Amino acid sequence: MNHLPFHSYMTVVALAACLVGCGGGGSSGSSNEGSGASPSTYTAATPVVGSSRVYSISTIDNSQNTINETAKDTIDSVNADGSFQSTETDPNNNSVTVGGTVYSVGTTISTHNASHQTLTTVHSSSSGGSTTTCTFSPYSGGAPNPFFVGETWTTQYSETCGTTAPTSYTHSGQVMGLESVTIPGVGTFSTAKIQSTLVWTNSAGTTTTETITNWRDTGSGFSVKQVSSFSRTGTVPTNGYAISRTSVLKSMSSGS
After folding, report:
1. How far apart are the first and last CA of the chain?
2. What is the model's pLDDT at position 26?
3. Which of 81, 106, 159, 214 has CB 3.0 to 4.6 Å from 126, enough for a Cys bridge?
4. Nearest one of 198, 195, 200 to 225, comparing CA atoms
5. Residues with Cβ < 8 Å from 174, sequence gap 6 or more?
6. Which of helix, strand or coil describes residue 247?
């Protein structure tokens, strides 16, 4: 879920948290698939070391510029309890400046618990130099894991990056249904279509509402496709911010 201010570093941290994690969160409400019937539940599988997914990312900014990027997520290690570490990079190592905003993927190392909830991220920019560590408390939001069609949830969490003050987030949504999604050249996936809203206010006084539709593979738990739109109130930037972003799985490998 792309939930942070939109320049090179924050864009990547958001993508890492969503495309690899995209799980977990407390469920504040639920509804069954049918009256008197127990819903079918779906649980994200433990990832395989060395497996990877490459995503194409298309961002449209407030001046209607289109910025295209590529991100590769690789599973580095998996612990006995199912928690794991992943690394996101740009295989093309690109950096684009549009309207004074720098878009680049760099490198982000993330830790996740067994429910695919993101716990920490460590980001290095594409140009190298210093790193920034972010900690999610208790963990990043997302659909519950396991989950079932019709389930609703609301999650509140905070994120602290470096020495900056924590940013609070509220993430609420619903598992809308199951859909078959075909990605040309990659395959056909049985996915859960999840619609949600993420709201946060940054230190500049900008309140952002991100409206998200995510198609999540019911087997692996990873995102196949995500479409986000953004609206802002309060202190709105004059230029160089995203109004929409789409990420689509481009290729994948199974690992060891």
Report:
1. 28
2. 39
3. 106
4. 195
5. 150, 151, 152, 153, 194, 195, 196
6. strand
pLDDT at residue 33 in the model: 38
Residue 213, token pair as written in the block? 């539709």
Task: Report H helices in the chain.
Answer: 8-15
pTM of this structure: 0.85
Task: State the pLDDT at residue 222.
Answer: 94
Q: Which residue type sits at 8?
A: S
Tell me the fold of 8-253.
YmcC-like fold (2.40.360)
- 127: Cβ contacts below 8 Å, ≥ 6 apart: 95, 104
**What is the DSSP annotation of 163-220?**
TSPPEEEEEEEEEEEEEEEEETTTEEEEEEEEEEEEEEE-TTSEEEEEEEEEEEETTT
User: Which of the residues in the chain have pLDDT under 70?
Assistant: 1-38, 126-129, 256
The domain spans of the chain are 8-253
Q: Please tell me the predicted confidence (pLDDT) of residue 79.
A: 97
DSSP 8-class letter at 45: P
Q: What is the pLDDT of residue 18?
A: 52
